[in-house]
Amino acid sequence: QTSKANYHPKVHDHYEKPRNVGLMDKNDPNVGTGLVGAPACGDVMRLQIKVDDNGTIIDAKFKTFGCGSAIASSSYASELIKGLGIDEAKNIKNTAIAKELCLPPVKLHCSMLAEDAIKSAIEDYKRKKLLAL
Ligand code: FES
Ligand code: FES
């Protein structure tokens, strides 16, 4: 556990004013829900995406039960993926998130949670689309 004062200003900004916190209807056929946990610390992140018929992510919502870096990573990730196609979004690397937020090495796994959550939400969306065929 790092004290809040040790966070980089960019992390602090997302932590104090997280973007896109919320919950979508997981039964909506255009919504994909990713729920992932970090084995290293037990933190949990839920990320949801809303995808239009062209495969573009038109909205994103998250809720993270975890440290400041995990909250900041999910907040930033939720902004980053809006407007991207799902195939672009699934290539987002945690290192890009960590770099943007200037996360120190011990906090890399927090950004990994965001990468995993994006992938998990996309997988869920694709699974639902297949089931609907
Ligand atoms: Fe305490 Fe992540 S920093 S659980
Ligand atoms: Fe585990 Fe940040 S300390 S997600």
Automatic annotation (TrEMBL):
Domain of life: Eukaryota
Species name: Smittium simulii
Keywords: 2Fe-2S, Iron, Iron-sulfur, Metal-binding
InterPro entries, per the entry: ISCU, NIF_FeS_clus_asmbl_NifU_N
Cofactor(s) the protein needs: [2Fe-2S] cluster
GO molecular function, a single term: 2 iron, 2 sulfur cluster binding
Keyword Cell inner membrane among record annotations: no
GO cellular component terms, semicolon-separated: mitochondrion
Lineage: Eukaryota, Fungi, Fungi incertae sedis, Zoopagomycota, Kickxellomycotina
Pathway listed: Cofactor biosynthesis; iron-sulfur cluster biosynthesis
UniProt record similarity statement: Belongs to the NifU family.
Segments forming domain NIF system FeS cluster assembly NifU N-terminal: 7-129
A Pfam family of this chain: NifU_N
Kinase as UniProt keyword: no
Any GO BP annotation: iron-sulfur cluster assembly
Protein name: NIF system FeS cluster assembly NifU N-terminal domain-containing protein
